[in-house]
Amino acid sequence: MSIQTLIRRIQNIMRQDAGVDGDAQRISQLVWLLFLKVYDAKEELWEFYEDQYESMVPEECRWRNWAIDNKDGEALTGDDLLDFVNNKLFPALKDLQVDAHTEKRKAIVKYVFEDANNYMKNGTLLRQVINILNEVDFTEYEERHAFNDIYENILRDLQSAGSSGEFYTPRSVTEFMVEMLNPQVGEKIADFACGTGGFLISALDHMEESINSPEDKMLVQQNIFGIEKKPLPYLLAITNMILHDVDAPNIMHDNSLSKNVRDYKDEDKFDVILMNPPYGGIEEDSVQVNFPVALQSSETADLFLSLILYRLKQNGRVAVVLPNSFLFGDERGKVAVRKKLLEECNLHTIVRLPEGVFSPYTSIPTNLLFFDKTGPTKEIWYFDHPLPEKYARYSKTRPLRKEEFELERSWWNNREENEHAWTISIDEIIKANYSLNFRNPHSINNNDENKSALELIQEIQQSQNQTLNLLKSLVRELS
Predict the structure, then answer these.
(1) What distance lies between CA 357 and its chain's CA centroid?
(2) 190-203 per-position pLDDT tens digit
């Protein structure tokens, strides 16, 4: 039986349970169960290779001691199983004692369960779900990695991105961004809004062939760093990393924007930063004051871009997904962060993506920004990613495929202007009040009839903002 069929069976069982309301709770329920089973499989390996290994999980709470059904009539089920899970398992794991000396691979059990919940109310159905999970042997490398493919499909099934605009980044996008940055063994790599860990996993996969020793593997794992604010994505990220043999994930459950950016030191900076920060969200004043006054903005994406600039090492490299509104907004904070970006970093490439890449979460057109801290920007190369023939837009059923980035790959190291690529000088950008919203001059579709309604609205907004700024300047001069 395929793992995909197995997951479908689990979802069908959970839909019968009155306590599980919607996709998000089904995912959350599945993942804490999955985490405990995967963690128990990892502990089997640690016990085999380490004679002195001692589990932090209380003996009765280890998966092998309560979740296995030996078909002898002794397995917990029904009300007895619910009572154990709600009144013994969860309280024990939430109350684990952790301090600065606790090994991270052990401490993550407490961190994972701090915000986890058991939503299922039917112990018989819960037993059925557990029995299906037990059909998978997570001590086997192939099964762990096969499960991850299904795990990503489950995430794509979530129909809502939530109020802060965060959503699953297609693997085709994460892999292209990672490939262009080309992270190396020994470099510190970060994602400050890591969601389920997609960028970090793509970075690990990219470096896999360069890992030639246990020391290399340990170095890579120590240098991968993520922060995630929300409980469910954090739980998913931890499990995702463990499925990829990262025994002690450096994933923090925190808000990356909650620390004053002026307090970051050299040891807090990274060689490679990969992100798809949440956007469309609004941050409160207590978060905005962590940034210099000129850079303060209520827009989450603006603050994350500022954070990146403060946490990027000299000669460091960045790839980040940002919405069109970042490119042209004339609010003071937006203009200031774009100015800081261009003056402190070389923003060498902007890949403009069509609508629908992030369907079904949002239809907002997005951009991939690539820059490095090697000096100020002198010019920016733009690349207009074309839709496949006969496509009106990307969608959930017609997603952006990895091979479609072949145009960008073949152009990347031998840049010439063509129907998709063009350059804009820093002088043109400054003249446009640091706007980065330049359309493809070679495009046959570069006319109003072929623009989307959203693009037209954005351009009208940009024109209005420019007119308003001009009027303000005239008023100042007259005064």
Answers:
(1) 15
(2) 999 998 899 999 99
